[in-house]
Amino acid sequence: MTSKIIGVGNYIPSQTITNLFFDKHHFLDENGQSLKQDNTTIANKLREITGIEERRYAQKDQVTSDLGFYAAQAAIENSGIDPETLDYIIFAHNFGDVRFGAIQSDTVPSLASRIKHHLKIKNNFCVAYDVLFGCPGWIEGTIQANAFIKSGIAKRCLIVGAETLSRVVDIHDRDSMIYSDGAGAVILEISNDEKGIKSHLSASFTLKEKDYLYFGKSYNADNCPDIRFIKMDGRKIYEFALLNVPGAMKKCFDDSGYSINQLNKIIIHQANEKMDEAIVKRFYQLYDATVPENIMPMVIHKLGNSSVATIPSLLTMILKGELPEHRIQEGDIVLFASVGAGMNVNAIVYQF
Fold first, then answer.
1. Mean pLDDT across the chain, nearest whole number?
2. Cα separation of 308 and 10, whole Å?
3. Which ranges carry the Beta-ketoacyl-[acyl-carrier-protein] synthase III N-terminal domain (predicted)?
């Protein structure tokens, strides 16, 4: 017995933010000094390293739970189920609902509870809770849902990943250009056939790596020092990911029992195109193999890094035929993988 995906959905905000948006920003380093490069050079370097040309921002009247609700609605409609039959609603995010122009995060009640309310679910035994696990949060929520299903306490779960990172960035930090908003969701259901989750893996590296991603003050010393923004040590994250993620992916894939030539797609968290390419290359090197063509779909160029939303949103786009160069067919083996704040790493092998 395992669990399989019976419905997918996403919500991609309509507000497109190109790299030109940042042309008038005053970027500073961590010491508060102006960067030497002009903003055009900074934007071109960002595109060269991360692949990001555009990203999406939520509308001013939207918050994270709104985006998650839209994705959840789409997944429920795609599955054709009655939402009253859901046993769990698991919402992966990291910063709660942050209203436009505000400096506070709102997480009470939980965002999962808000989605359940908006879905008008009357079933009191549909349990709604949130997961905070960095960018790998949606995969972790899916792993938890699978555990509930395999244990017999649930038959059907909704797992949502949504974020509005545009609300928690320091406008004086060039790393703010990476982040975006979005949402994705899936319905997971009990399965007694060959399809579904075949293996999974999770790990948290905290002894030395805990603060590679953190909340810190603005690089502008004139701003209130008590207001915090998302910050990262990009070099250390890059080195950490290349050192630890390929091996974790291999362990998870080996546990599935498949051979490397049976793998059809790798859907990986998209924070940096070059980093993802290097991770996948090292993963295949562990098998003394070369990376197959078209193995890793990428949408970071147009959607940026939307944290927990990237993987379920990308999966939805593929299954709905919105990426003509990428298809997932019945029987295909897909490896999902993510890395992020914590530092957390996880992976799932899934047969469609």
1. 95
2. 12
3. 129-202
CA distances from 214 to 167, 168, 232, 344 (A): 15, 12, 6, 13
226, pLDDT greater than 80: no
pLDDT tens per residue across span 183-192? 999 999 999 8
Q: What is the pTM for the complete model shown?
A: 0.94
pLDDT of 341 strictly over 90: yes
Select from 231, 136, 184 the least CA-distant residue to 13.
Answer: 184
Instruction: Specify the DSSP element, H or E, that contains 2.
Output: strand 2-11
Give 24's pLDDT tier (boundaries 50, 70, 90): confident
The per-residue pLDDT for 194 is: 84
Alpha-carbon gap, residue 109 to 66, rounded angstroms: 14
Q: Which of 2, 334, 277 is nearest to 152 (CA)?
A: 2
Burial 166-201 (b: 16+ CB within 10 A, else e): bbbbbbbbbbbbbbbbbbbbbbbbbbeeebbbbbbb
CA 193 and chain centroid, separation: 28
290: left (phi over 0), alpha (psi -120 to 50) or beta: beta
> What confidence tier does 90 reach under pLDDT thresholds 50, 70, 90?
very high
Q: Which two tokens stand for residue 158?
A: 């909704």
> Exposure string (b/e) for 64-99, b if CB count within 10 Å is 16 or more?
bbbbbbbbbbbbbebbebebeebbbbbbbbbbbbbb
- What is the set of domains in the chain, with CATH numbers? 2-193 (3.40.47.10), 198-351 (3.40.47.10)
**Would you say residue 15 has pLDDT above 90?**
yes
